[in-house]
Design goal:
By secondary structure, the protein is mainly alpha-helical. The protein has 16 helices and no strands. Helix 4 packs antiparallel against helix 5, helix 5 packs parallel to helix 16 and helix 12 packs across helix 14. The longest helix is centred in the C-terminal third of the chain and has 33 residues.
Length: 419
């Protein structure tokens, strides 16, 4: 047992504090599915963070939990801060940087809570919260879709998240589906497996009826990555061939059929609109390669206000474009380094064989790897690394990374659902 473990195993009063922190982590994972709860969620997080810092200080426990992504994460956040004074609107960019800083705090706070959870209940509870949040979000979206006359023939009506739109719903489902499947496999209770299968079905239906092609591509990327990590090379090749055929069919439909029912989904005008704004950003990035023009989505909008390219594509429509143009090539390089390091850290335990006590870590890392790939693909085409979606992302990354770093003598705990 480490010195930190002995300290955490000390007075029962401190144990109750960490129980509150653990429940708070799962609560945040649930509430971040619902944009209208953003205000209460923010206050809850900072209250828990302050309590955790005070508790760690009183117990004499280090505040920091080291991970493989520390260097790129902190360099990225630090460089964005350096570029704030050079922004079109420094006050706005600083507000956006504070949100990024809050994501850093959320990630490291989550690691601290996971470190204090010696019985490994937090991972179970976070997964349960994701299943509940995804199920309620998808169910609400589908009911609203039907009530508003949505059909499979076109996307005049699209399923959307509570208090938001189809872009948010699509991103939530891309993130949730791998972790819901992870929970379904991990927990041994037969009734929960049916809950997991049903929730996955609802999430897939919500993704389909959000009619967001970037979301569909995110799911495809997750499926391909899952087959690759699982070593299913033949299935992977078959799926690639199927996707090529499906893509060819869509192009053919676009050429021979201009009816709205089919062309609404196959029409490439949205991609063309994105290309046009990306060209604007690329030209500007060459003029401001070091510090960019200002971190944050609305700096992009302000810079190109009145340009015809923004009539059909309002904003950068890519997280990577937003980061590069907003804070320069150093920020983009650090961001790519961060994502690459995350990917390597998550896939390493998946590829390595180990004793049965590591099964939970490998399974959670597997699900988080798929989430990472799908989320990156989704963010290629929209700026969705924001709000509750970013918070959920970092909670998942913290859980998966700490499961991989956790001392191996600690057994997995899914007692509440075993049977």
């Amino acid at each position: 047992m480490t010195a930190v473990d002995r300290t955490l195993a000390g007075p029962t009063g401190w144990g109750r504090v960490w129980t509150v922190q653990r429940i708070g982590l799962a609560t945040l994972a649930f509430l971040n599915f619902f944009p209208p709860a953003h205000g209460p969620t923010r206050y809850l997080f900072f209250s828990l963070l302050i309590l955790a810092v005070i508790t760690l200080w009183r117990q004499g426990i280090p505040l920091w939990v080291r991970t493989p992504i520390d260097a790129p994460f902190l360099l990225f956040v630090g460089w964005v801060l350096v570029t704030v004074p050079f922004s079109i609107d420094p006050a706005y960019s600083f507000r956006e940087w504070r949100k990024l800083g809050a994501q850093v705090l959320l990630f490291y706070w989550s690691l601290v809570v996971l470190r204090a959870d010696r019985e490994r209940r937090a991972t179970t509870e976070v997964l349960l919260a994701v299943v509940a949040g995804a199920g309620l979000t998808a169910g609400y979206a589908l009911v609203e879709f039907v009530l508003h006359g949505g059909t499979w023939k076109g996307r005049d009506v699209r399923a959307g998240a509570l208090g938001s739109d189809y872009n948010w719903l699509s991103t939530y489902m891309v993130m949730a589906i791998p972790m819901v499947l992870t929970a379904t496999v991990l927990f041994r209770s037969s009734w929960f497996k049916w809950v997991g299968i049903g929730t996955t079905g609802l999430a897939l239906a919500a993704e389909v009826f959000a009619y967001t092609r970037a979301g569909w591509l995110g799911l495809v990327a997750e499926a391909l990555m899952g087959l690759w990590l699982a070593g299913r090379r033949r299935l992977l090749a078959g799926l690639v061939i199927l996707l090529v055929c499906a893509g060819g069919t869509a192009v053919a439909m676009l050429q021979v059929d201009d009816r709205r029912e089919t062309s609404a989904v196959t029409d490439p005008w949205t991609f063309t609109a994105r290309i046009n704004v990306w060209k604007l950003a690329a030209a500007d990035l060459l003029d401001h390669p070091i510090v960019g023009v200002g971190y944050g989505n609305y700096n992009f909008v302000k810079r190109y206000a009145g340009r015809p390219e923004l009539e059909k594509a309002y904003g950068p429509h890519s997280t990577f474009v937003a980061v590069g143009l907003g804070s320069g090539l150093p920020a983009l390089a650090c961001f790519l380094w961060l994502l690459a390091t995350l990917f390597l850290a998550l896939t390493r335990p998946v590829r390595m064989a180990g004793p049965p006590t590591e099964a939970t870590a490998r399974l959670v890392a597997f699900g988080a790897s798929l989430l990472l790939v799908g989320f990156v693909v989704r963010n290629l085409f929209d700026y969705m690394f924001i709000g509750g979606m970013a918070n959920l992302f970092w909670i998942h990354m913290a859980v998966a990374l700490y499961e991989s770093l956790r001392p191996r003598e600690a057994p997995p705990d899914s007692r509440g659902l075993a049977g």
